[in-house]
Prior knowledge:
The chain has helices spanning 13-26, 264-267; strands at 44-50, 55-60, 66-73, 77-82, 85-90, 96-101, 104-110, 117-122, 127-132, 137-142, 148-153, 167-173, 176-181, 192-199, 205-214, 216-222, 225-230, 247-252, 257-263, 270-277, 282-288, 296-300, 306-308, 319-322, 327-332, 339-343, 348-351, 359-365.
Amino acid sequence: MKKQKTTKTNRSTLALVITSLAFITLTACGDSSSSSAPQTSENAIAVFTSDFNTGELRFIGEDGEYTDEKISFIQDSKIFSVNGNLYVLERYGADNISMVKNGKVEFQVSLEDGANPSDLVAIDSKEGWLSQEGSTELLKIDLATGKTKKNVSLKNFVVKGNVSPNAVNLEILGDTLFVLMQRLDQFAATLPGLIAMFNANDGKLLDTISLKTPNPTSMTAYNGQLYVSTLGSYNSNYGTDADNKRGIEKISISKKSSELLVTGKDLGAGIYNMAVNPDKNIAYVTVYSEYGNAPLKAIDLESKKISAIKGINDAEGGMFFDSQKGLLYVGDRTAGSESLKIYDGKEVKTVTGNKVLPPYSIAPFSQVE
């Protein structure tokens, strides 16, 4: 397989400081983005793996185990399936978007220094929107080449003292693009998050919806509405508290309003990541108490009943629900036993492989050699 890695070294001192602060404030590890509604299974599953020094894109074979194939990228990268194609967003230290097809890097496009790309969604088969957590620009791109076709400014959403509105997640419903923004205040999560609505074709701002709680981490469309998970402010131990200042918010698009459906008090902490099983009305969430302690829990979105899923103690390594197979893929980064887990609703299975780094981000894809 083709190996390709691009790293930039000409960042300014300010950009490095900003990146470091944002990393401490916003992330623990793994993929904090749950891009798009639950997706249909393609032909295979890709897993981006990382140990904070090295990053490798790995693949799950037909036997359900890791293959020996791998492609190197910077350690802090996210992967997304868009129209069945696999895209890699290299973040801190590289700022690139790449497309991987049939085991090869089809293209790699450099973004602005400090852009920190965060999510990618399709408008149609040719174009998509790319959010950038460290930039004030929302990009409309050509999905076949990665080249920018239009820039939409998010400067009006930047909180004083920050350099960006911290756009972390995207969704498209009909002809509307929803942009989830953390709007950090001096890199602290003190203000409620915000959803900005744009025309998905021309990028014209339509309206905004304010959240109830700060530091949103993921957004998913389900049953014609949006559900947003929030982590809330960090405590002195860089963990999150069991209170009502975080949880899952249910967004009414027609009313432009939000309600706190489940709180951190109910769960035991804030939510780092979320995926939804649409057939059973269940949200799977990573409950982030502190670094290394982030169990997986299931929430019935109708009854609000919460149950713990045993066998996964640190679900910070990405999450993807395969709606066709009814399987939940979870990256378990428990120290000493890091592995990809598959949950079928009853049991947890561990995926093995030879010298595989800890899981970090998970996505399906349709191209296989």
